[in-house]
Specification:
With 360 residues, the chain is of the alpha/beta class. It is 33% helix and 19% strand. It is built from twelve helices and 13 strands. The strands form two sheets. The protein has an eight-stranded parallel beta sheet. The radius of gyration is 19 Å and the shape is globular. The structure holds (4S)-2,6-dioxohexahydropyrimidine-4-carboxylic acid and zinc ion (ZN).
């Protein structure tokens, strides 16, 4: 056995669903998947209806999460697609969330905003949380310029292309306050795998070329990429097989093993893997120090072949199915309580705490 202890693992980019999309997954099933995947905390995205884009939407999500979450959590506010919310409303909601998410391109959930609105949203955000963006293609430099112009702190989600990695690196050199995330599916698969993956390879941003994938790994090694985020986005298998395949794949139970598989293959150091899923996300999202006695034990000398039947996510499928991944989660402890051991989730629904409630 070769055990690595990671304190305060945090996945800053998950879509837990629940509420009107509870058939895809809910706050109980998907935080169960988080704990089984080795996470002590997650930050939930705003695009599940009713959207988390105003006070009532935020209240609805926080009340459901409070009763069901098995791990600690925070919530993203979403930029309202009809425009910037009044200043007083933003000031009231901002301390209750980890940041605001801007959907600068078409994807699941219907929260897309235009380029000029993106700039207004960046300018209006009072903080203290981060401005995160879903941006592809030309929207990437526009978002980075907007951050620089308004001197705001931002996070570019799921960086997908070699060009975007280079643009982030250039802005970091210029002093723009930006961090960036990469997703495990973009680190493992390319568009060449689509034939074999079928609907399990359909997500936004889409899979790229092998040059894009290599640039993401290089960015992880040289610091252009700060975190690895799962973008856990369950949809039912029936929905994925339908004529209008929805974007998104689950990832909470495979992300940490994908990284320790890369460690085993010599593409990453163990220390860097730990930074990507714990140290860096905690620092970026204002969650340092982590709660005491909150850690994950990974057996990096053990592997498992991923099987759809072994998953806790309600959707019950994964693009990683059939792959041998190294790094088996042995134990997860949150605030002194063992919440996962020997393959069993021990935390009851409602055990998880809102990590941003302290500032309300
Ligand atoms: O693939 C994706 N799925 N990308 C997104 O931006 C949204 C997500 C979802 O909510 O399904
Ligand atoms: Zn997402």
């Amino acid at each position: 056995m070769s055990l690595v202890r990671i304190v305060g693992t945090l996945d800053p980019h998950v879509h837990l669903r629940g509420m009107e999309w509870a058939h895809k997954g809910d706050f109980d099933t998907e935080t169960t998947a988080a704990v089984a995947g080795g996470y002590t905390a997650v930050l939930d995205m705003p695009n599940t209806p009713p959207s988390t884009t105003d006070g009532p939407g935020l209240e609805r999500k926080l009340s459901e999460l409070g009763g069901l979450a098995r791990c600690d959590y925070g919530v993203w506010l979403g930029a309202h697609p009809s425009g910037v919310r009044p200043r007083e409303e933003l000031a009231r909601l901002a301390p209750m969330v980890c940041g605001i998410k801007l959907y600068c391109g078409h994807t699941t959930g219907g929260l897309t905003i235009g380029a000029s609105d993106m700039d207004r949203q960046v300018a209006a955000w009072p903080g203290p949380g981060v401005i995160a963006a879903h941006a592809e293609g030309d929207m990437v430099p526009r978002f980075l310029e907007s951050l620089a112009r308004h001197r705001k702190r931002g996070h570019l989600c799921h960086v997908d292309t070699a060009r975007a990695v280079a643009e982030v690196a250039e802005h970091k050199r210029r002093g723009t306050q930006v961090t960036a995330g990469a997703c495990p599916h973009h680190l493992v698969f390319t568009e060449g795998d689509l034939w074999g993956l079928g609907p399990r390879g359909v997500m936004k941003p889409p899979l790229g070329t092998s040059a894009d994938r290599d640039a993401l790994w290089a960015g992880i090694r040289d610091g252009a990429i700060d975190v690895v985020e799962s973008d856990h986005a369950p949809h039912t298998w029936d929905e994925k097989l339908g004529s209008d395949t929805p974007f998104g794949v689950p990832g909470l139970e495979t992300t940490i093993p994908v990284l320790f598989t890369a460690v085993r293959e010599g593409r990453l150091t163990s220390e860097r893997a730990v930074e990507l899923v714990s140290v860096a996300p905690r620092r970026i999202f204002g969650l340092d120090p982590h709660p005491a006695e909150t850690y994950t034990v990974v057996d990096t000398g053990a592997s498992r072949v991923v099987g759809s039947g072994d998953l806790y996510t309600l959707c019950g499928w994964t693009p990683f199915s059939g792959m041998e991944l190294w790094g088996v989660i042995r134990r997860v402890v949150i605030r002194g309580t063992v919440v996962f051991e020997d393959g069993e989730v021990l935390a009851p629904p409602g055990f998880g705490l809102n990590l941003y409630a302290k500032s309300v």
